[in-house]
Amino acid sequence: MDVCIHVDWRALHEAAVGHGVVCETAGGTPLPVATVRRLFCDARLIPMVLDGAGAVLDVGRGSRLATPDQRRALSAMNTRCGYHGCHVGFEHCQIHHVTDWTHHHGPTDLANLLPLCPNHHHLVHEGGWTLELRPDRTITLTRTDGEIHFDGSSINRRGHPPPRAA
Q: Residue 46 and residue 146: Cα distance in Å, rounded?
């Protein structure tokens, strides 16, 4: 059975209460912070980070697949594959976990996701290439021989800085 509790980070870590601080059931029933802390002792936590409009952008390990909101956020940055020089449209891309979800327990968080076309997704998983994604969304693509193929921005939508070649 799943129980969904919405808790503001401040409520858990600062014992903050009052206006604007959330600590309640999914249905809106208020809960004491101490009760929620006790419940968390025996629960599998699935943290979710929301953007300013309430869209879920980070779901941690609670879901393997990118959410529709995460796909929308990625499409706001990318019109095509995040692999430099690829022109396959975003709508034909798969969402890649840079830190692998299965073997390395990478989270399904926006900071760990990158759209890749099937060909480049295969190149990273089975082809032996490595991909590093930094918080500023710049990436380093490294070939199997250790040579850097590309180092620059993964964002390819107009209005963002152009990628720098390696």
A: 36
Helix (H, G, I), strand (E, B) or coil at 135: coil
The pTM of the full predicted model, rounded to 2 decimals, is 0.62
Is the predicted pLDDT of residue 68 greater than 70, yes or no?
A: yes
Q: Which ranges constitute the DSSP H helices of the chain?
A: 9-14, 33-40, 68-77, 118-125
Cα–Cα distance measured from residue 137 to residue 14, given in angstroms and rounded to the nearest whole number: 31
pLDDT digits (tens, 9 = 90+) for 94-133: 998 887 666 656 788 888 899 999 999 998 888 888 889 9
Distance of CA 121 to the CA centre of its chain: 17
| Strand pairing report for 94-97 and 56-58 | unpaired
